[in-house]
Amino acid sequence: MDGPYLRVEESGDIMPLNAEVTTVGRGNGADIQLGDSSVSQLHAELVRRGPYVYVVDLGLSRNGTRVNGRPIARRVLDEGDIVSFGAARCKTGGLPQEEITPDVELRRGAAPELTRRELDVLTSLCRPALSDEAFVSPATARDIAEDLVVTEAAVKQHLLRLYQKFRVPEGANRRTRLANEVVALGLVRPMPLPSHEYKAS
């Protein structure tokens, strides 16, 4: 087959990546549908840039997206990489054979300088997804404001600066993309929630 493709391990189906953006998920609208219950309705995007392809995780579930067993937020794919969307495994093919350095580890040095308060905001943002709760979306500005005992307006200002620092473009899922980037860079670690923070919704 000419051009990049994904082979679904369970079924053996070959899925060509012809479009600039190919969506992956369990939902009916996904370009590549994976029936595994660990896969989100809209789980990830595969983006073509010339002969290259990179994968972008769109959710913040603990099931996440992994490349060769390592959790990622965004990563350039190489020939033969194993990409796991939740528990569903796929193998890449048709990619150029050359030396590229896609590891998230190499991007750790690219983490921007953060103030103590910005780090507090990021920790609060990511806390729901890193806890053992079933709640998998990042915290809202209101949640963060309550957590840090500051105004919602102040939190929104911090988030705007953080979007700029981490170069998160405007658009849907902006908080999720920021949280994914922060977790992938290892800036925020999983932590247990104190018992008094389990609130009835």
Automatic annotation (TrEMBL):
GO terms for biological process: regulation of DNA-templated transcription. SMART domains: FHA (SM00240). Pfam families: FHA. SUPFAM superfamilies: C-terminal effector domain of the bipartite response regulators, SMAD/FHA domain. CDD domains: FHA. Keywords: Phosphoprotein. Coiled coil: none annotated. One of its GO terms (molecular function) is DNA binding. Residues 22-72 form the FHA domain. This is FHA domain-containing protein. It comes from Halostreptopolyspora alba.
